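COMPLEX REQUEST
Ligand: 2'-deoxy-thymidine-beta-L-rhamnose
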Amino acid sequence: MKARWDIFCSVVDNYGDIGVTWRLARQLVAEQGCEVRLWVDDLRAFERMCPQIDVQAAQQWQEGVDVRHWPAEWAGAPSADVVIAAFACQLPPGYMDTMAERERAPLWMNLDYLSAEDWVVGCHRLPSVKYKGVQKYFFFPGFRPGTGGLLREAGLLEQRQAFQQDAVAQRQFLQSLGVFPADGARLFSLFAYENAGLASWLDVLATDGRATHLLVPEGRILGDVQRWLGAEGLTAGDVHRRDALTVQVLPFVRQEQYDHLLWCCDFNAVRGEDSFVRAQWAGRPLLWHIYRQDEDIHLDKLDAFLALYTAALSPAAKAALVALWQAWNTEDDMAQPWKMLLEHWPEVSLHAQTWCLEQGLQADLATALVQFYESWI
Ligand code: TRH
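STATUS: Structure written out below.
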C-alpha cells in the first residue's frame, strides 16, 4: 500500500516555504509513488509560482498532489503515515491529537532550513520533542554526506545539460519571455532582497567593456533597480539601457520556467533557499543573497557555505568569490570584488559545473526522506 504523507506549509514571508514544499510534494508523488496532501495557509503565495491554483478552493488536485487550504480554524482530518512540518511550523493541535490516536504513530518530522554548518550532520535525524507519545525528528537538508541532501528531481541535471547545449531551445524560451539579448551580451539574472550594494554593481556592469543583459523578475530588489535607473513604476516587460548594461524586468514565472531562466544565464544572483539550490543545479557561477536573520547569524551560515563551496578553488579565485558574496550580503561596494571575480571567470565557471556534479552524486532530499521512513517502519 502507498504511504500517505501530509506536508504542512505555513507561509511566513516570501516564497521559499511554499517553493520548497511544493517541489517536495510533487517529487514524492511523481518519483516515490507516495500519496501526498500539501496543507498551505496562503494560497496566494502559491499562485505566484503555480498560476493554475484556485485560491478559493479548500481542496484541489495539482500535478497529482492533494492541495489543501490550511484554514485558521482547523476543521479536522485524519493523520497520514508520515507528517512533515516544514520549517518548524506548528501543526494544528487537533491534527496532533489524531496523530496520537492512531494505532501506529506516524513518522513526524520537522523539515529544517538548509545550512552548510558543521553541526547539521550531528543533528540530522535526531529525535526532537514528543507529543502524547508521538516522537518528532529533525530532518536537515544539506550539502554534506550525513545530511538529507538537496531537492533534485530525477533527470534534472541531464535535462539542464541538454537545454544548455540547445541554442534554439534557449532562444525560443527567452523569446517567449520577450527577451532578445544582443549578440555577444552576457545574460545575468537577479533575484534578491533589497540591497544598497546593487548600485555599485550596476555601475560597474554599465561601464564594462562587454555588454550585459540583466533579467530581473518582479520582486523586492526592483526598488533599488528603479532608483539606479532613475525610472519610476518599473513593471514586467520594461527594458532600460545604460551604456553597456541592459536591464529588463520579467514577470514572476512558474517554477519550471524559472529553472529554464537560470539555465540560460551566464550568472545568477539568487536568494533564500530554493532559488539558491536551483542556481547550483544550473551549473553556472552564482551570487547568493542569504535570508537575513537576527543578530546576523545568517553571516555564519554564509561563511559555512563559502568554506565548503570554495574549498577546491585556487586561493585567488576563492578570495574574489568570498569578497563578492560578503560585499553583497553586507550591502557593501561591489565594484572591486566584481572586477576581481571577472579575472577568475573561467575557473569559477568550471567550478560551478564540478560542484553541481558532485552535489548530484548525493541522494536527493525526497529519496532521503523516503529512505528514513522505510528504515523507521
Ligand atoms: O522567496 P525567498 O526569499 O524565500 C525565503 C527563504 O526560503 C528563506 O530561507 C525563508 O526563511 C523565507 O523564504 C521564509 O527565496 P527562495 O527560497 O529562493 O524561494 C523563491 C521561490 O520562488 C523558489 O521556489 C523559486 C521561485 N520562483 C519562481 O517560481 N519564479 C520566479 O520568477 C522566481 C524569481 C522565483
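REMARKS: The chain has a mean pLDDT of 97. Residues 146 and 157 are 22 Å apart (CA to CA).
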